[in-house]
Amino acid sequence: MSDGWPERLGRAIGVPVLDHRLTGGGHGASHARARLGDGREVFVKLADAGAELSAEAVGLRWLAEAGAVPVPEVLCCADGMLALSWVPPGSADLAAADRFGGDLARLHAYGADSFGAPWAGFIASLPLPNEQAGSWPSWYAECRLLPYCRIARDAGTFGQGEVALIESVAARIGDLAGPAEPPSRIHGDCWSGNVLFSGGRGWLIDPAAHGGHRETDLAMLALFGVPRLDRIMGAYREVAPLSEGWQVRVPLHQLHPLLVHVCLFGGSYTGAAVSAARAALRA
After folding, report:
1. What's this model's pTM, rounded to 2 decimal places?
2. Which residues of 168-189 are buried (b: 16+ CB within 10 A; e: fewer)?
């Protein structure tokens, strides 16, 4: 495009951009903050590959349908540009943590038509297979474990031993998965950096949303240390008790995000992925 993104954004939403500044970025996208002529603050993500932005926009709208955990409003998604309503920073106090736990339980309970999703997925800059299925264990093995194991193998990050270990988890997934559950409406990349506390609530951003297992979101909150996890979990379980043995399945659900980190960042995450795989097999 011959003009800049502020002009394109103003035309797309029908409100001029008064000022803007770049704020950083990651995974092939630049981030900016803009102020509109009507006074609204806007977060803008800019990327050459529009597919990732489209998946994020679809995921945010899909999560918003549940009316449970608040998410930013999608103002525009076109021409390599995603504009969202600005979420002002707040504090993760006890009340906010309690409310987020209950909200997350209600989001998951809203459900999904199937495991997977009817749109192409992305997590960070990596494709996220979203083929739809009716059974979680085989779907998790085929769409969340083995694809990233192969990427790590092809990049030379995983050797034969690591590949065999992940394949062992996939082969035993039926025994490891626990009681069957219906598809939950999950964020899919629910690490602490994608939870913003604002206005006394926890907000979700940057999803890899799909129909999945609710324990996946909870395990990822634990993996990278969301604030006040104990309060969040307590409030969640008051609204939606978890199936027996959920604690021992945490490494199984953490294995996918750890494999993603191996693919994105290399061998520094290999040890964590191997440890999670071994713990899952011991469960």
Report:
1. 0.95
2. ebbebbeebbbeeeebbbbbbb
- Tokens describing residue 222: 């634990």
The residues that bridge with 185 in the sheet, in sequence order, are 211
Q: What is the CATH number of the domain that holds 116?
A: 3.90.1200.10
Catalytic-labelled residue, pool 189, 206, 217, 230: 189
Confidence (pLDDT) at 272: 98
Contact by Cβ (8 Å): 55, 67? no
Q: Are residues 142 and 32 in the same domain?
A: no
Residue 38 is a catalytic residue: no
Q: Domain containing 50 — which CATH number?
A: 3.30.200.20
Environment class of 9 (CB within 10 Å of its CB; exposed 0-12, middle 13-18, buried 19+): buried
Those residues with Cβ within 8 angstroms of residue 268's Cβ, 6 or more apart along the chain or in another chain: none
Domain that holds residue 31: 5-85
Phi, psi (5° rounding) for residue 120?
A: -70, 135
- pLDDT, one tens digit per residue, over 203-235 is 999 999 999 999 999 999 999 889 999 999 999
The answer to whether residues 154 and 272 belong to one domain is: yes
Verify that 81 and 119 share a domain, yes or no.
no
248 shares its domain with 144: yes
* The total number of structural domains that make up the chain: 2
- The tens digit of pLDDT for each residue in 11-65 reads 999 999 999 999 998 888 999 999 999 999 999 999 876 788 999 999 999 999 9
